[in-house]
Amino acid sequence: MNQKEEEKLILDRLRNLCSKAEKCKKDISMKLLQWHFEGDMEEIIGTLEEEGFINEQRFAQSFANDKIKFGKWGKGKVRYLLKQKGIPVDYIDLAIEIVSEPDYVETVKKEILKKNKTLKAKNEFERKKKLYAFAIQRGYESDISLQIIEKIIQD
């Protein structure tokens, strides 16, 4: 198989992959490396972008929505992982901004309450510390988390 045929085959496989789930440039680059592709990666990625199979902004919005709504992740964790994938900061900010604030706060509250029921703590301070550590690990903002934790402890 010559270089052109290999590129066409790879491109077809990537189109199929991208049509099933949103992908970013880094995902495609990693896939090409995994397949030991030795051609021009930038050309392949450029073609996929031109054809609309890859769109970083669309990827960021989809990723943020799915991870926050279904994965119960915090905005901080989503922001960090999108940066790791090489998504431009403008797209990340836009994707995070689209998330409904009341729904997000309600999700944070439910997750912290759920964690609170499973915690074993000797005193109030230890309980707060464990809940706060849980919230930060999930990527929830500290101000929102602290307000919710204070309300839980008071009740």
How would you summarize what this structure contains?
This protein has 155 residues and is mainly α. The protein has helices at residues 3-20, 25-34, 41-50, 56-69, 75-84, 89-98, 101-118, 124-138, 142-154. The protein contains nine helices and no strands.
Question: What does this molecule look like?
Answer:
- With 155 residues, the protein is mostly helical.
- It has three domains: 3-50; 56-98; 101-154.
- The protein is 76% helix and 0% strand.
- The chain has nine helices and no strands.
- It is elongated and about 70 Å long.
- The termini are far apart.
- The relative contact order is 0.10.
- The mean pLDDT is 94.
Shape: elongated
Beta-strand percentage?
under 5%
Order of helices and strands: HHHHHHHHH
The main pleated sheet reads as: none
Number of strands: 0
**Whole-number mean pLDDT:** 94
Counted up, domains total: 3
